[in-house]
């Protein structure tokens, strides 16, 4: 899944260049490329399908030249994750009705790659053994209030895979602490495994409106583009969690420890990045800092930063905008971006 | 005088692009261009001579296309202001031995233009009436410790022009307060008027080493370039204040109120710039600030800044470097620039 658009990393991510296309760690690899490389030991490149918005076609081609043309599914409209995955399941099932699939957001960080590969292999074994929808649940390292949580239920006989008891939206801090201390709750990473047939069945049962957008018509791999142009925009905009996972009776969680972050914000990026002795983080820049602590410095291009006296800040500098903002206030960044758009124009966001 | 190189406005001013060539106020006019326009009502353009370093030739041509080739004097080496003015006096005297001249740094701000024109006209009258060296003394608006001070002496009979009693280097804050309260001291603006013949005489009497570099040889307007290549580098590197003004017996000060600043630092720029209600200054940028006070925001190019929580800072962003630095510490900027050079290389300074 590579169609997301976000303002949480403004001014780095913009509508024209969302986060998955950025080289956040200055490693020469964008998050999309890293996701591709990460899944490659488990899924053959010719079986990796990218679903993205039509406006990102050139970016995907440029960043993943190895991906064949027919493996890039271009959404004509933004409809959240459920229609995206319903289309992907149809597309894959048309090639192989027995296929199973893993769904990966293209903008996450996974530090423990072999644990990730093991989790996928175990997950495929599990979903191929029956009509099962599996989601990865990340063992929480803190009472994070920015993630949804999954409560585990009955064991399944497969080690570390359990029935899901409940899904919870982002909790309050107090609630998050209870969740984490209980040992029963896991972060919802948005990584899913299932047989395409299981997912299509689940759509028909749990989200008939989504299913109908693809079932009512003449979907075939040959006429796919025309079909999608007509049908996709008619699907409701709804997430896979809400449309299927929270409703289906056959949902399981595989509990894992992957060194995972959804890199959902500057703060999340700060938390997973290596820090210097003063607790500062530099992304792609050279820094001469004095009396600075707990600050993330991120720059585009070959540029140096000289800073003095900043405590717990985000300093993010792109071609079009410079952000100097307290990390603690970053929940307000979304409003800031809207204000920037209103005052200075679309071109800055 | 247009040959200066400075680090006090880093990262805006750099060796390749010193402050006089910058459009500091985003007005579409560089300081050099503003200086040219400012003196034009008093001095015909064909009589305006630019002395600069050879490496800035292209910049001068581009910024002042109206100036004729032969009016640009290109120093082959950096020798401070005394050799620069000795050459200029020879050059002008060769055209007209009776000429008088006004010396203007090309990187200062003057807000009161008609007072400036009046001061120059009165000054020319004064120096053309005898063998006199005249410097402008700015009525101080604060006990500034970044300027040299001139103490006025006996009146001359010409209103507002007095004999100079003494020159003082940059004083301590305590001393500066005494100076300002006495009413006897004026800021040394580095703006001078004299007949070329008076200056050349003064060089021969007060700074024979400087005079000798130009007198010992075959200076003529025709062979000027070859002569200068040979002689100029042989002159000692010394300021006009130290070489002549502090020694000559015939030095006078014209006390003026010009809305003048030497724009000697970010702080000086902040002080002369219009501020918004929070006491913030923006140079060439659009700002969305929250909880910021007393901060100067300066940007190159079409860029916006979003800032929160900065008090009394300089935020200066160029293509190569971003500076976020407390105004109060700006005396340390010179060291910072040296450290940048040592750690990151020449290309950043």
Give descriptors for this structure.
homodimer; about 350 residues; alpha/beta; 5-stranded mixed β-barrel; 4-stranded mixed beta sheet; 16 strands
Model description:
Two copies of one chain form a homodimer. Chain A has 349 residues and is α/β, with parallel strands linked by helices. The first copy, chain A, has eleven helices and 16 strands. Chain A has helices spanning 31-39, 57-63, 81-95, 113-128, 173-182, 196-206, 208-215, 224-231, 240-245, 266-272, 333-344; strands at 50-53, 72-75, 100-103, 109-110, 133-138, 149-155, 161-168, 185-195, 251-256, 260-261, 281-283, 286-290, 296-299, 304-308, 313-317, 321-326. In chain A, the strands form five sheets. Chain A has a five-stranded mixed β-barrel. A four-stranded mixed β-sheet of chain A has the order 11-13-15-16, with helices on one face. In chain A, strand 15 (313-317) and strand 16 form a beta hairpin. In chain A, helix 3 (81-95) packs across helix 6 (196-206), helix 3 packs across helix 7 and helix 6 (196-206) crosses helix 7 (208-215). The longest helix of chain A has 16 residues, at 113-128. Chain A is globular, with a radius of gyration of 21 Å. The relative contact order of chain A is 0.15. The model of chain A has no long low-confidence stretch (mean pLDDT 93).
